[in-house]
Amino acid sequence: TWSKVTTTVEFREEKEPFGSGGFREAHKATTKHPNFKDNIWVIKRYLPTAKEGIASTNQTTEQHTRKTVQMHLLARNFASQLECKVAEQHAVGEFGKVPRYRKIFYGEDDNKECVTVEEFISGKFTKYTNNTGDLFAEESDIIGQKAKCLSHFSYEKSEKKLLLVDVQGSGYDFFDPEIA
């Protein structure tokens, strides 16, 4: 369920985006709020064409933003469960570091525009799988193989009802997943 308790956080957002995708552009942001001050954050805003596309599917940007947050949190949960499974099987030494998804929040700005607020991830961006689940990583790419493992784990853990796809990130920090 969605929390009924809201938290007001004032961010200092950079005007120019540092990245852009098919649906949203990303702006770095910082704050002095005690619960958020220790990180750099990313505020993702919808592109005008994305808003039109969302509306054409009879969805609102609020519904789409909530779905985005839910998919991210589900992927985060699968990654956490995989980490527990690796530890439970005493395979930490063999498996190594497990990929993770960082925090994400649903937000609205002063104009009531829906946004996501996510922890900033630095480094080189790599796409490991696309929306169809096709693997882009080479067999020798350990993180790519772990991305594939996490996708397979999500499929097995959900009793073959869900599949984590569009796996991408920087190092072991993943973001913007899709759930098929």
Structural description of this entry:
The chain has 180 residues and is of the alpha+beta class. The chain has four helices and twelve strands; from the N terminus they run E-E-E-E-H-H-H-E-E-E-E-H-E-E-E-E. The protein has helices spanning 48-56, 61-88, 92-95, 142-157; strands at residues 11-13, 19-20, 24-31, 41-46, 100-101, 104-108, 114-119, 126-127, 164-165, 168-170, 173-175, 178-179. Strands 1, 2, 3, 4, 6 and 7 form a six-stranded antiparallel beta sheet that branches. A four-stranded mixed beta sheet has the order 5-11-10-8.
Radius of gyration over all CA atoms, rounded: 17 Å
Q: Could you report the average pLDDT, rounded to the nearest whole number?
A: 94
From the N-terminal CA to the C-terminal CA, the straight-line distance is: 21 Å
Number of beta-strand segments: 12
> Spans of 5+ residues with little confidence (pLDDT < 50)?
none
Largest sheet: 6 strands, antiparallel
Roughly what fraction of the amino acids lie in strands? 15-25%
Structural class: alpha+beta
The H-and-E topology, N to C, reads as EEEEHHHEEEEHEEEE
User: Helix segment count?
Assistant: 4
Helix content: 25-40%
In one word, what is the shape? globular
